[in-house]
Amino acid sequence: MPATPLKNDVFLRALMRQPVPYTPVWLMRQAGRYLAEYRETRAQAGSFMQLAQNPDFATEVTLQPLRRFPLDAAILFSDILTVPHAMGLGLDFVAGEGPQFARPVRDEDAVRRLAVPDMSELQYVFDAVSQIRRELDGQVPLIGFAGSPWTVACYMVEGGSTREYRLIKTMMATRPDLLTRILDIVAQTTAQYLNAQIEAGAQAVMIFDSWGGVLADGWFQKFSLAYSRQVIQALKRERDGQKIPVILFTKGGGLWLEDIADSGCDAMGVDWTVNLASARRRVGDRVALQGNMDPMMLFGTEESVRAEARRILDDFGTVDAGAGHVFNLGHGISQFTEPDVVAALVDEVHSHSRKLHGN
Questions:
Q1: Could you say which of 22, 38, 155, 227 is catalytic?
Q2: 3-class secondary-structure state, position 319
Q3: Taking 90 as the threshold, does the pLDDT of residue 184 lie above it?
Q4: How many other CB atoms are there within 10 angstroms of residue 80's CB atom?
Q5: 178, 157 in Cβ contact below 8 A?
Q6: Which helix (H) or strand (E) holds 206?
């Protein structure tokens, strides 16, 4: 793809801990059901899978929040479960129940059949990345993403969403050989998938370890972090002379900040249970930090939302030489959030953070 000069590269510079005039902001799940235009496009598509697998629809919903808010990055509209779907597990999204797989991976035969899929099975994702880059025309950078091997494996074994993780933790305890094979295949696939997104035009990539926090200490390092690290080590970190930063986000990972910071990532996402001042003391400026407002705080008043944004920015403190902070939520935005409150949040982050940048 021909390089289009970025009009706003503050997000990328912050990830690489370079001087920036303010703290950039984007929001996990920023293209979503809280926007009326997303709901209209989703209805037009007919189903979530038809929305995600059509590059025109994926491009449209990726761009929708940028038309409303002066966000500093776009993130590809897709789903972390495109990877196991490409492996033939038969993904469907059931109304009121969430994602479900027709063929979960729960026994030796299913694990033996598992293989890294041909990336052509995910071409619709790469086509969407290229199309979004063209439509952005250098407005802001585009983030590509994937789920962590552990998080994706949870869905593959459980067959869908779960609150107990009974099946995958049973496998972990009784047949760790099967689980490690699943994780290794998913890690190989994820690295190829993210590299193909980079080749298609993604300017940063993020690994969502959404369920790493459900593991015990020791098990997290063995079954989650080790495989996220495997992915990171296999990623292309530069394209067309530009560095491709990598963000690793573990929800519930506050216990392991030092370990996560040593994974090889450029930036570490943290959820709302982590104090940014404490996190910064623990990891120094080895990595940039991303986060971390509680999404539920967006149900407050405009002034309370602005006050919370200031508190978080002040917790991180002065963004001096070698430091980096990207403002975000500690998890995805709720579908019930009012867009006007999001506008106030973005405005407050941009305005207040200028006081904290000494350049």
A1: 155
A2: strand
A3: yes
A4: 18
A5: no
A6: strand 204-209
Is 177 catalytic? The answer is no
Identify the active-site residue in 17, 22, 34, 79.
79
pLDDT bin (cut points 50, 70, 90) of residue 3 is low
Phi, psi for residue 328 in degrees, rounded to 5: -160, 175
Residue 17 has pLDDT above 80, yes or no: yes
Interstrand relation of 325-326 and 246-250 (parallel, antiparallel or unpaired): unpaired
The pLDDT tens digits of the residues spanning 158-172 come to 999 999 999 999 999
The percentage of the chain sitting over the pLDDT mark of 90, rounded to a whole number, equals 92
- Residues 295 and 269: their CA atoms lie apart, in Å, by 14
Token pair of 204 as six digits = 């940063």
155 is catalytic: yes
Q: Which residue out of 33, 106, 237, 280 is catalytically annotated?
A: 33
280 in catalytic set: no
34 is catalytic: no
Catalytic status, residue 79: yes
Identified catalytic residue from 13, 17, 22, 29: 29
Q: Residue 337 in contact with residue 299, Cβ under 8 Å? A: yes
Which pLDDT band, with edges at 50, 70 and 90, does 1 fall under? Answer: very low
